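testing teh design pipeline on a random one, pls ignore if ur not involved
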């Protein structure tokens, strides 16, 4: 069993307080977050937020799952690019959806094969499985040659 570790420190009340997040790997090192970066501002200039990090984790996981699924089908991608858009309902403070847009450059692969691999990878991705069936996860696959 693998364990991944991260931590957060929060100081002050919800709306005026501030916090930092760190990960054991050092990828996050006292990265700032606040009420504003989470629920008001989307520019990202003042720090990150848990939902943005979840979207990033989902994009990374899905890219790797797609590569693994391609290998099973006998293909190796030159490049896979995933954009994940997470929707947060601010009234209920619930994640309601994640939209995955994947583009790939894969020698010898047809658009139909790419779509099939992308669909299978969506079922294999650890983060997709962790989120489903509680939220809608959609994906669009575009093969670029």
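output:
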């Amino acid at each position: 069993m693998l364990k991944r570790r991260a931590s957060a420190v929060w100081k002050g009340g919800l709306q005026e307080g501030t916090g930092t997040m760190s990960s054991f790997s050092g990828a996050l090192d006292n990265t700032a977050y606040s009420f504003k970066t989470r629920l008001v501002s989307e520019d990202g200039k003042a720090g990150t937020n848990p939902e943005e990090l979840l979207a990033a984790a989902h994009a990374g996981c899905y890219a790797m799952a797609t590569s693994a699924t391609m290998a099973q089908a006998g293909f190796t991608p030159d490049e896979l690019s995933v954009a994940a858009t997470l929707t947060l309902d601010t009234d209920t403070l619930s994640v309601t959806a994640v939209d995955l847009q994947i583009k790939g450059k894969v020698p010898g692969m047809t658009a139909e094969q790419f779509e099939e691999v992308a669909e299978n990878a969506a079922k294999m991705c650890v983060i997709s499985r962790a989120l489903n069936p509680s939220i809608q996860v959609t994906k669009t696959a575009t093969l670029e040659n």
